[in-house]
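Response to reviewer comment R2.3. The reviewers asked that we include at least one raw input/output pair. We reproduce the pair for alpha-1,2-Mannosidase here without editing.
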Amino acid sequence: MSCPLHPKHAFICLLISFAFFIDPSSQHVDNVRKNQMREKVREMFYHAYDNYMTYAFPHDELKPITKSFTDSLSELGNLKLEHLPTDYNGSAVSLVESLSSLAILGNKTEFEKGVLWLSENLTFDVDVRVNLFECNIRVLGGLISAHLLAIDPTNRLIQGSYNNQLLRLAEDLGKRFLPAFETPTGLPYAWINLKSGVMENETTETSTSGCGSLILEMGALSRLTGDPRFESVALRALRQLWRMRSSLDMLGTTLDVVTGEWLEYSSGIGAGVDSFYEYLMKAYILFGKEDYWRMFRSAYLASQKYFRYGPWYHEANMWSGKPTYWQLTSLQAFWPGLQVLVGDVAAANSSHREFFHAWEKFGVIPERYLLDHQMIHPTERYYPLRPELAESTFYLYQATKDPWYLDVGETMVKSLNRYTKVAGGFASVRDVTTMQLEDHQHSFFLAETCKYLYLLFDDSFVAKRNYVFTTEGHPIQVMSSWHEKLPESYFSGNWTFSKSGAWESGASAMSMKVCPSVAPNSRLHEQHRESVCHVPDQKIDHKCWSNRECGVDATTCRQRSCSAVGFCGLWNPL
Ligand code: DMJ
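Raw output as returned:
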């Protein structure tokens, strides 16, 4: 099966292509299994959610072992609580984070109850110092996504009246973010006090993801409110970050928002950088601006060239491209999911297998594994119920419909229930070598881990619509009115739908986002499929004088080089 499109549209083609190989008899068996697994995941979600509502709400997160709470909104990013008023009751972060999952699980009553409670009780006029990135992805993203789900008439989530209360809350929060961007560079401070703005002597250090992953939520907020400031500050920060890249198209991990200088030159695809890549690609999908695509493409190619080693990704110095740290980290496991979106399914599959091996070996994934010493990092042995492997598994199953990914999901569900379930919810693992637990159920377990596992086994919620999931797993629909490229005629109303017809079964929820020009009668067999990482050799006969004339291989994403006899190929050993 092959595809007629620009490389950047390749992923839809893969999604369609794989669907032609589904065997109907095995499909029935898969469906039975999927229904059973979906119900198991539903139980998991409610065990986590009900315990939160009973023992922690309206505080931010649940402590499942002691059945108590933590007001972690200001602690997010692992800093200690500061300036917390004694009468502070939290911001119900786990409830905000649960709304889109409740919608996907079809619990309209609980969704509506949550919306009403937040409308009447949530306030951001509190003297609390919060991490901008975390507050953006969890609270702003949670509110915006729930607002969009609430106003989508096809969901019928609200029986009573809904007067955009969640959007008003989001707008209020977004305005409180704005002072963070008032720096000489336009790069935002990492921390902000919701009541008073940037605090005296505030740290000027932040991370690449901290200032490069705000555009989905802030962009959506501008489109919804008509106030351009949110999108404009987020975009300015993103462009500034991109201007600071090295000649190799690489970025560091931490930087100073006042001087605009890099503080940490080593970077990779994991902590501190991960969602920067993700948001360039997803912003292109949601808003259709060519600029996002150009930035993403360059950054992605550099990642394949300088970080990738077979299925693994090490870190590298942004100036020299030389490897620095050889580590597999739990956060990196989102990468295969992103690769599915860009069409590099083969590369996604090979990395995903390595992460799953790690899961099988340890029961869950340790935060950091030292590839060069073949051991777990001595101080990062924990697994805080992270969603990234479930997320990639969901994307890869969407793209391939290979039932092996259902096995992966089943294994994950079993491990989570076996090692992390306690009477009061799900607890993080402090040490994967002993499975000793820690008294914390992070809100992303409700927003992401359970949601992606549920969607793996039942994608009916996304099957006929085009959602982009934020880095916190909150769905935002692709809309023609927000999009620079997709023609109006492509949409039914203002929402997007999969086309009906013979090939619909193969079109996933993600399929229409960047592939508008596919027609059902396309002569798919005669076309050549390309991956986004494919860069053609300079000469059509693949002859070359130097490595510079050779491109990047489409299947492996590896840089080709010029052989002694003058031909481009994958000559360099891994
Ligand atoms: C989530 O808060 C988001 O996915 C974020 O981008 C990084 N990872 C955590 C969960 O692991």
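Confidence is low (pLDDT under 50) at residues 1-21, 76-82, 489-529. DSSP finds 16 helices and 22 strands in the chain. Further pairs are available on request from the corresponding author.
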